[in-house]
Amino acid sequence: LSVASVEDPVVMSKIRQNLREKHARHIADLRAYYDSEIQSLKQQLESSHRTASSEELKKINQSLADRDWCNLYVLNRCDQLDAALNEASARIKALENKNNLLEKQVADWRERFCAISNTSKVLQERLEEMRTAHKEKDNTISRLKSRLKELEEAFEKAYKLSDNKNTRLQEENKMFQNLLGEYESLGKEHERVKDTLNTTENKLLDANTEISDLKRTILKLEAQLKQVEHENTLKLRH
């Protein structure tokens, strides 16, 4: 038998069933044979009882005793082999149940590992998107700062050169206030993006840690599964 056939539960069940049937037929044949021999000897003993001498009767009795002892020995041996076969079948069944349980645990841990890996991938993509958005916000703030500086320079220049100082001052002040409000709004948005980015990075670190723990658990379960399969193979060979 190949290793794959030995590990197949259906094949093992058929093998055990065939062994039981052969064992039962063998015991039945032995019992029938020895019963036939005993009956034949009894008939011979009855037919020659009146004509045989005492020495011949002793030999016949000894032969019958030897055959009875041999018959009892064979029957006892058959019972022992039957008990050993039942014990081995029970042990194989226990190992198969343990093997199936370990396979289910490994499958469950693999599904959980795949789910966490997918979640980690989604978090990584979201983190990259937030980093890109954060970079765009930084670029916008830089442009607004440059624009604010230009407006401040224009405001100072207009303040010096304008005849209508009050009107130009109010217009520039209004523009400056609007720009300052937009700058503060972008600054708050920038802080919120930073907080969200830090939270996402912490979740990603936790997911990576849990993935590492699951990998170690899966390796341990696979090692236990290999050990059980090895024990099962040794028992089957025995």
TrEMBL record:
Keywords annotated in UniProt? Coiled coil
Instruction: Report the GO terms under cellular component.
Output: centriole
Q: What InterPro entries does the entry give?
A: MPHOSPH9
Residue spans crossing the bilayer: none
Superkingdom in the source lineage: Eukaryota
Record carries keyword Coiled coil: yes
Coiled coil ranges: 78-231
What protein name applies here?
Answer: MPP9 phase
